[in-house]
Amino acid sequence: MKPQTIKKKRPFQRRKVCVFCADSGMKIVYKDVKTLNHFISERGKILPRRISGNCAKHQRDLTAEIKKARNIALMPFSIVSS
Questions:
Q1: How far apart are CA 80 and CA 47, in angstroms?
Q2: pTM score, two decimals?
C-alpha cells in the first residue's frame, strides 16, 4: 500500500508589474547606474524577468543598457567576493 502524498498549496502571490510600464516617465539609460543596480544580483549577474518582474520588451532594453554600462566601465562585469 502506497503512503499518501500531501499536496501543499502555495499562497497566492501577486503578479509582478513591470516598473517601466507602470511609470512611463522612468527611462532606461546606461548612464543611470543607480537604477540599473536594482536589476543586478549581488554577484553582478543580470536578474531574469521572472524575478525582476519586467516585461519582455523592457527586459531586453535593460539588458542592452547594462551591457553598455559595463563596456564603458560604469558598472563591473563581476563582483569578486573573498
A1: 18
A2: 0.79
